[in-house]
Amino acid sequence: MIWLGSIIVLLTFVAIVKRYETRMVLFLSGLTMALLSGKPLVAIDAFSTAMVNPGLVTVICTVMGFAYVMKLTQCDAHLVHLLAGGLTRFRPVLIPGTIIVTFAINIALPSAAGCAAAVGAIMIPTLIGAGVHPASAGSAVLAGTWGSTLSPGATHNPFVAKLANVDVMTVIAVLTPADLAALAVVVIIVTAGAYIRKEHYIETQSAVNTTGEAAEFKVNIIKALVPIVPLVLLVLGSKQVNLIPAVTVPQAMIAGVLLGFVVTWTNAQDISKQFFAGMGDAYGSVIGIIVAAAVFNKGMELIGLTTALIEAMKHSESIAKLAATFGPFIIAVLSGSGDAATLAFNGAITPQAAQFGFGIIEMGQQAQVAGSLGRSMSPVAGAAIVCAGLAKVNPVELTRRNAPAMLAAAIVTMLVLL
User: Fold this and answer.
1) DSSP-derived secondary structure for 153-165
2) Which end of the chain is least crowded, N or C, by CB within 10 Å?
3) 151 vs 158: CA distance, rounded Å
4) Residue 390 near residue 167, CB atoms below 8 Å
5) What is residue 209's predicted lDDT score, i.e. its pLDDT?
């Protein structure tokens, strides 16, 4: 039976790479393995349980609702323009600054493609106008679209927190040193690559106003600060800082929505519609993958594949390290999404992390970061397609420039976390 399960898992990831609908593939694969084990109803029970998981549903849905409201009120645009405006005054920091700014904004706005569109629409023309090669301009923005790994509302942080039975800010605190080390590696390698290729400044390009759109947009500082207020509340109320009473993610996000209304006086009915539209989209797209992955994980368990993998990893700590890193990384590169592979790994293997000599948080976060880094160099990722379109280059050009940095960053996080 185990060999049948192995074939099904392999075919599952082939289908995901070929961009078949992820939820359908995970669900059908898990149900097939459950049928082969003679216990299909157990897989359906796993589906039902995952649908109503309060630790995940409330967090992810309220974060997405908040993001939709920030887009409606244009508070996200004010934040992007505020940060971009400072960069345009200093040409040498344009490329590294763009990566860092994108990373920071992706924490507040955790959708990679959405962040790429918001930041890229401003920074890519600005970089090109300053003389940066279009492909390097696009790769700089794409290289920062994994900042969501530090977002309390990103799919995997509450997922890992639930596995480890801790609050989400504890999970983020564990990951932060590794993430910052990896970010430094990405900034250095991507910037160095642009200089080595002589793409940091093209002498023949006609002079244009390097401030681009950032100069035409009148930034409202108060509106620009609204998107980061929930993050500030969560940090100040975390166990690590403890300056204010503890704040849950839904509380912080709803506070941000109310603040967005007060600051912008956008029609309250429109804000309500957008908030709940965001919650609905989050449930359908993000929670839907988690639910389907739960069926997939249960199928692996029922057919005996999970136990076999755990036994194999017990005999070598290095195998567990490599699996947590390069499994999600490679699948993310090929498929353009790290969610499916990361959720499958974290659901099936990470709960047994202690048997390999690791903590649940460390192993779960390594899988998350690796998947996010792989996505940030994938030519088929939504964020890459957005950046390439804005830069008017082939997405593969972005992959060529980001691949060394993302691979090095994945190795760095592995060394720090595991």
Assistant:
1) TSSHHHHHHHHHT
2) N
3) 10
4) no
5) 46
